[in-house]
Amino acid sequence: xxxxxxxxxxxxxxxxxxxxxxxxxxxxxxxxxxxxxxxxxxxxxxxxxxxxxxxxxxxxxxxxxxxxxxxxxxxxxxxxxxxxxxxxxxxxxxxxxxxxxxxxxxxxxxxxxxxxxxxxxxxxxxxxxxxxxxxxxxxxxxxxxxxxxxxxxxxxxxxxxxxxxxxxxxxxxxxxxxxxxxxxxxxxxxxxxxxxxxxxxxxxxxxxxxxxxxxxxxxxxxxxxxxxxxxxxxxxxxxxxxxxxxxxxxxxxxxxxxxxxxxxxxxxxxxxxxxxxxxxxxxxxxxxxxxxxxxxxxxxxxxxxxxxxxxxxxxxxxxxxxxxxxxxxxxxxxxxxxxx
Amino acid sequence: xxxxxxxxxxxxxxxxxxxxxxxxxxxxxxxxxxxxxxxxxxxxxxxxxxxxxxxxxxxxxxxxxxxxxxxxxxxxxxxxxxxxxxxxxxxxxxxxxxxxxxxxxxxxxxxxxxxxxxxxxxxxxxxxxxxxxxxxxxxxxxxxxxxxxxxxxxxxxxxxxxxxxxxxxxxxxxxxxxxxxxxxxxxxxxxxxxxxxxxxxxxxxxxxxxxxxxxxxxxxxxxxxxxxxxxxxxxxxxxxxxxxxxxxxxxxxxxxxxxxxxxxxxxxxxxxxxxxxxxxxxxxxxxxxxxxxxxxxxxxxxxxxxxxxxxxxxxxxxxxxx
Lengths: 340, 322
Known about the structure:
By secondary structure, chain A is mainly α. Chain B has 17 helices and ten strands. In chain B, α2 links the parallel β1 and β2. At the A-B interface, α3, α5, α10 and α15 of A face α3, α8 and α14 of B.
């Protein structure tokens, strides 16, 4: 075996053999016993499993993963005690929004939504597009699922923006805060969602809507944080100096100078947050979120290509509606800012 | 120009003679479905084909529906194993067309689909192993039925069975899971917390191997009632247990003709639920990888798998059969 000599030389043989060798038989061992030509001795990387073969006291990698699992299960009651009340409002908001969007009759809700699009964007093209999209979704019987998805996106995006902008502002004030939060943002964007969702099922019941709410928010909050931080940091130094010269307090500077000048970047962040929330729709449906994601999954699972495609296009339509509306709103804010 | 023709003819003749001269097995592709029992089956089959028959095995990780679509359209991969045929209508079509040949029932006892309640709940209240007991006290099993995933087909069957059993009227709620992973996680979470749980699951699986559950009693399988239960607009839902799910190994007919020795081995390869359940339970408790679980099977049941092999293969693996 590869590293046996090392342990013998270090005088650790007795300590090593104190642990019984109860490692399960590996495929390599089985092949060796059939007399099949192995891949030769060679020098494998000194991983935990390889070292375990030479010295049974050393834990195997599977013991490390098992320890993580047992640690989590042991902490469960305390984690649940802390996290449950913190996240309960999210469940309540998602359930209320879902109830609202599905119980208000369409001839009240759709005109209200189209009027909202007009009020925010003041653009005839955008409003017409919104109206036509809803009509198209309604004609193919996808209106209720589209509204369910829309309600989830509304709630998750609002919370993402409400939490993300203050965090971005905090990051922009201090390099230390920025340096400590950036790795967390990287983690949130790249850690596979199911890796933390399945343990969350152990904490909260699967029937709770906060499960998919947390999944969407944790992924979608990142752009608005990054872009708020960037937008505020990009405000011209000369303007800040002028504000200081005028004797503005920090709070006045933030509200009257930094945020208005950073607004285009912040709005870009909000736009990206909306897009990323919609990108998470299908993963949210994997943890039982209602809406268009369910239809996409059904199409994938049963090889009903048409069902999956149409539902996917429905998600794209929602994305384009929200994108155009928020961009038109941004253009209005920009124009108003420049007019001053 | 003539030289090119002669060269082409020589090469083709050479190619044909090469394949004729090789009695050894060639390249084989086999599916590995994304659940534990399927991974064990594929590992065992690959090992025996490589070491016993000298095949060059390529394992294709996949799942039921894409594998069936691939075989139907392209004739690849060669071997599909752990196919649960009741959930793929296209399987019967392919058999009828002659594209696929059924090799064996790889899980000889068939898959078990049923409704389950944790063992510790039934210990305290034995009547909860019956539908009447659950109907009388739905809160004792948690008041929630964990239904199978939307789009799997069993969600419709379960819904109609729930209606027929009167459980929906008795106040039982029904939660449709979004994926098999959340269903398994919900079961595990409830078991770890010693909470009541009631829902649909299937065996042989790692989850049921790790957490002892009790099957809820159902009247025996009735083909007519079960077929109607499978339709969303069934006017008269009735109570019927699930039939033993047919779990097979199938190979393309082309492959079966190309490699008759391997095909014969596949017709004999078959695991009982007891054997598979024991391997899966050991895999869960000792955190074995899929390969190590296959090794466990190979070292624990040499009499079983040596019966599947032909004499040549048995000779090559004599060291393991002892």
